[in-house]
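FAQ: What does the model actually see?

It sees only this:
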Amino acid sequence: QEEEEEEDPLALPGDIPLKIREHWKIVRANEIRDEEEKQENDDDEDEENKNPSCFKNRAQAELYHLVSTYADISHTRRIPDISHLSQKKNKEDSTLRWRNQKDDELDAILIHAMTHIHRTRNRVSKNNEKLAKKVKAGQEISIDDTPRDQGFARPTVLFLSPMRNVCGRAIMRFLKLCPNAHGRADAVNKLERLENDFLAGYSSDETSSDEDASDEEDDEELKRRKKKMQKKINKVTKKKKKYKTHVPLEYKELFRGNQDDHFRLGVKITKAAVRPFVDFFGADIVFASPLGIVTAMNDDISAADFLSAIELVIVDRCDVVAMQNWEHLETVLEKCNQLPKDAKDVDVNRCHEFHLNGAAASARQTIFLSQFETAEINATFNGALCANVEGKFRLRATKEKGVLGLVASPDDPRNLRKNESATLPNLISRQEFELVRVSKKNIQDADDIRFRHFAKVVLPRIRENPDQGQLIFCATYFEFVRVRNLLVDREVSFAINSEYTDIAEAARARTLFADGRKRCLLLSERAYFYQRRNIRGVNSVFFYSLPENPQFYAEVCSFMKNPSPTRNHQSNTKNQFRGGGRGAGVSGNKTAHALFTRLDALKIERVCGTKRGKKMIQETKEVDKKDNDMFVFC
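And it is asked to produce this:
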């Protein structure tokens, strides 16, 4: 009984090296002390969370146990933490707030990566010592006595991230949890360069480096003078500081700092130090973006040889990678574990047999971390690129609530602003979801069927609507081009906002749309992902295809809640004759109409909820195939 009581489900397992476990206790003890000083812990928290020799919570412990099985994992419920953005600014912790962000799931995966590197290097170093002793003793080493303990290159872990700022936070957390990065002043080489390259400009308001903090203390008087002068100027000019209330906190966190998506970094771990900015063939872990590796392979064919011995691939923020280019990620996974074209200092006698046989991909562990589940992630995870013999685990949400309630409420879902001062008087009366039937035989023609239905049914409805302000949303750029060409052929007055549109031209298009000089606005999901601009003058929204991110559906629909801009007199008089006396920008019914097929089951589940989504897909079996189902939510 005493042994059963001593066993703690949150305790660190014994397979983690002792050096890493002891350092984890130090890190956790410091974090617990800081939390107690700030009094941020709730009274209902379990005492186990305050034990430095254990994991933080049960979710972190369970994730580590799954990862330690070396099976492929698709974690599509990783919600980024943005609680630090809503905290009050303090002079003490404002400069280091990016260091204290909570990411328990990433900590579990980084500990697994460090454990894997530690085991690999210890095995190789011990075998080197044994072979050196035999050489000194004058013994002959046969091929049978040579240990098979390494691959064609040294790096065994690949960490892929979409942008520098996201990767920089993971690197700093890796250094904080790595015991080799502590113990002496020069344990981490080129630390200042590392922070400048990945975390420079992370936040000009809240975060900066330690040197900037000292400079701020010296220049407090100058800042006070500037504030006083600015207040006087505001009183004279009667100008108030403008805030972009429509930008959500998640967007601010993601695009804060260096947004470069082209980078590569090799990190070498020795017994008492960590050396970043080393050559890839001499590194233990490589932090890079998919684009950075693909461009290197295009420049030199043999540049991808360092991927031949990768045993662990971690892809962080797959939802953001999908917004960039998912094909780059697939290209990198294809190049992993291939036979090198140029062997550099490789002892073939010590290579693993499955590496020599070209079967190293079957022993590689791949971990996908995403905020939500997409068809691209499932296709790659279930395909030949993830063929791990240890099996696969999928972590996904069993029940989705949906975002229909956010659209129907008078509050703004983009910034959780309540409608207390009646600034959002327009409410959305109808949310329509139309199912476009696609049979099993015509799955490959699903895009053509959707396009024909849009051209025959939806587009006439847009043209016959007497009100201005028709917003058309497309999920992919191919759909965007197809709909754009259709609007040109039908001579519809419209403006465009895509990811390839210049910023000035996009702003001009939104202005023309808001003023009523353009009847429709064509918007792509990737353009809205990178530039969360507030669009005025929207009376109805037509989703040619639902967005991958369910929050985008609520945010785009919330444009109809904005107060309608004042238009010129000519447009008002025209709309009075066309719409029965209603002025431009004033619509009786604010509606959102979305097209979907059975292939969009994941999108429907996230937007409408799990229960509604299943009914919307299943109940169509009893209806005539020629009809399209319409689901209306008021």
